[in-house]
Amino acid sequence: MLGRVLALLDSVAAAGPLGRGELAAATGLPPATVNRIVASLLAERLLAEDAGVLRLGLRLFELGTVAGQAGVTLLDVAGPYLVDLHGAFGCTAQLAVLDGDAVVYLLKIGSPRQRRLKTRVAGRFPPHCTGAGKALLAFGAPEAVEGVLARLPLAARTRATITDRPRLLADLRATRRRGYAVDRGEFQDGMTGVAAPVRASGRPLAAVTLAGPTEVFDVPRAAHALRLVAQLIEGRLGGAGSGR
Asked: Which of 18, 59, 100, 188 is an S-S bond match for 22, by CB 3.0 to 4.6 Å?
């Protein structure tokens, strides 16, 4: 049984999002067996399903962030740094991952006195108009990014949202060059965000972000701090980052 479970998870990990029929074909397992195993994996959040398409679930990410024998997780490591960033900048600090075609925020440190940022922990948000999403796309594997962009409707959330694919690709190239992403009111009017990738084996594991009112937000200062924090998190998790 365990071998079949691993075969299904390996297939989704290798090929990306798959339908149940495609998964049966990839593993050589009978459709009834696939459906039974998938039901169990969905219940345990090891797989997630949207519109009939299966992808790896967030629980695998949570399990996979355990680093070394110390048992330190990404959330454990990143949390204190986010608190420090919030205190230093007076802005909302967040940790996010790319789950399928959406950005999911795992941590959010803010204050009720601040202008409210329209994100929430465990919420799913479009990557093309968020700093975290653009950082994760820009440093991701090119074939995976192409797949996301092929499926993703570049819907406008504000007048500043990039809805043109060539412009978005140019923005992602600029993000790679400078090492951080910027959201200038593209997700929420009047709010600017900056995000830097936390990398493992050269690919983004997560993104750390700061966001605040555009009129007072210092992009260069925030970018410098976020890149430093990302490096510190990578070091605590085992020196996984590369290519900075």
From this structure: 18
